[in-house]
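Entry for nicotinamide-adenine-dinucleotide complex. Fields follow.
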Amino acid sequence: MADPAHDPALRDVDAAIGHEATPPLDDGDGLHGKVAIVTGAGAQGDGIGNGRAAAILLARSGTRVLVVDRSLDRAEVTVARIIADGGDAAAFAADVTIQADCHAMVDAALNRWGRLDVLDNNVGIGSRGSVLEEDPARWQRVMEVNVTSMMLAARAAIPAMIACGGGSIINVSSISALRPRGLTAYSTSKGAVIALTKAMAVDHGADAIRVNAVAPGPVYTPMVAGGAMSAAARRARAAASVLGVEGTGWDVGQAVRFLASDRARWITGQVLVVDGGATLRGPERDPGTDR
Ligand SMILES: NC(=O)c1ccc[n+]([C@@H]2O[C@H](COP(=O)([O-])OP(=O)(O)OC[C@H]3O[C@@H](n4cnc5c(N)ncnc54)[C@H](O)[C@@H]3O)[C@@H](O)[C@H]2O)c1
């Protein structure tokens, strides 16, 4: 049998669990000095969307962030917040449904900072209605923006991550994939994001690339606020969670930062549901008889 002292896979673990080994004093998350791309990291106005929150939180951990959005103006708002916070970031305009744009965004990160460690595939658009109500062209567009874009961005990013010895990819899904409610194209696309995540985790584990998904519940982001949601509707959304509180983009950003960090070093192919327990809720059951 091979001597564990000469086998890196075993030697590192032996060192980590030896009686002198404890996590570093700062409980290091390993994010300082890393480079991340966050797609859809702009948001309407100065509000906090899921991508903007993830970009700001990663930058607070010392990660340099390429803030990518189809709208350069929106990306620049995110960058301004990061710079004001003492972080390092740059704005980049790209449409992630276009392969050339995905390659250009990866090149921009490499040219500026020389490496790439994290990709937060955050871009996504909504839909309404059943298959009977759906327009097939609109269905195709939802799949293109919500699923194909993640494949295109990953195709561009993975070779750069391999060159750095590994990385972490986070794909933003939704609880609509787990508990659909009449947004059928959206639910289908977000289910495909989960399958894509698991398949990519298997494909790229040997490259030391972890791939996980975050499935947010109905968080209050500018996209939602832009629709002028009533206070009553917001209260109903809050009540849908078992915690009884409304979620925000920060809650999603925290999950992304955790999955990007070394704290998640042995987590891959998983779906982290961030919904205050909303998916646990169902209609009241008959007490005493229902199991
Ligand atoms: N808001 C919610 O309640 C909620 C719930 C579950 C999942 N999600 C998911 O979270 C993600 C972000 O949601 P949000 O509400 O923060 O988003 P958002 O609508 O505020 O969009 C973020 C940014 O994406 C950019 N964008 C759109 N298409 C793009 C493209 N093709 N290329 C580059 N940039 C593009 C937009 O310009 C926008 O600034 C999405 O994938 C969404 O499906 C949101």
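NOTE: The longest strand covers residues 209-216.
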